[in-house]
Amino acid sequence: MKIKASMDMGLLECCARCLVGAPFASLVATGLCFFGVALFCGCGHEALTGTEKLIETYFSKNYQDYEYLINVIHAFQYVIYGTASFFFLYGALLLAEGFYTTGAVRQIFGDYKTTICGKGLSATVTGGQKGRGSRGQHQAHSLERVCHCLGKWLGHPDKFVGITYALTVVWLLVFACSAVPVYIYFNTWTTCQSIAFPSKTSASIGSLCADARMYGVLPWNAFPGKVCGSNLLSICKTAEFQMTFHLFIAAFVGAAATLVSLLTFMIAATYNFAVLKLMGRGTKF
């Protein structure tokens, strides 16, 4: 019983050390990044497909009018594939960087005992012991050497801060652009509500229209280019319109979640970099 109790205590102590060393900010940001990117890319891809079908069916009868739009939609869909792949890879790298630099930071403050990988990384990012020869008394373990080499790549939060900052600026533009289709569909839906309840507006039903040309979706010579009155109301009642509208909203939410995750990554990496930089110079807080 005593042996079992000691094993349980050892397991609990090990779990406690792992929890103390875990970069919770990076874990939360990684989960939020994966969720946001999956939502943005998946819903955005299907929403663009739905928009293409709506334009083909209701707003233009001539293929040449929306040929350029279809090419742009297909190009955006290919970009979405690349965006999803890049963010899942970069999110994994940021999580790994969070684990390594958090371990080095907490070793500095003495929060927990380091592992072999932690020692290898701390020697890299904090300027620890160097110059041990191959024939020295304390030869580095093979796993420690591997982690040391890995730490040379991951143990540079300054590089991750710069890349993440630039990526955040770019994604801020993506977030703003993802609001544009939501705005267009919301205006169309509001117009349909005015047609469905004519008592709430002073305009005649026939003058209430959704003009795709006004938003630059179609050229001005496209025919008909716009749908008005009861025809527009029938479009808004279709499952295709409702689904596309909600998919664009979901994509917008996914873009917002990804933006929050990038900001969290940037704050965490900046903090780790500041601590390692200052402590490496012997500066005390």
TrEMBL record:
Lipoprotein is among the record's keywords: yes
Top-level taxon: Eukaryota
Compartment(s): Cell membrane; Myelin membrane
Bilayer disposition of the protein: Multi-pass membrane protein
A GO term from the CC aspect: plasma membrane
Transmembrane segments: 21-48, 68-96, 160-186, 247-274
Keyword Transmembrane helix on entry: yes
Main localization (coarse): membrane
InterPro entries per record: Myelin_PLP, Myelin_PLP_CS
GO MF annotation terms: structural constituent of myelin sheath
UniProt keyword annotations, A-Z: Cell membrane, Disulfide bond, Lipoprotein, Membrane, Palmitate, Transmembrane, Transmembrane helix
PANTHER family in UniProt: MYELIN PROTEOLIPID, MYELIN PROTEOLIPID PROTEIN
Protein family: Belongs to the myelin proteolipid protein family.
Protein name: Myelin proteolipid protein
Annotated source species: Lynx canadensis (Canada lynx)
Gene: PLP1
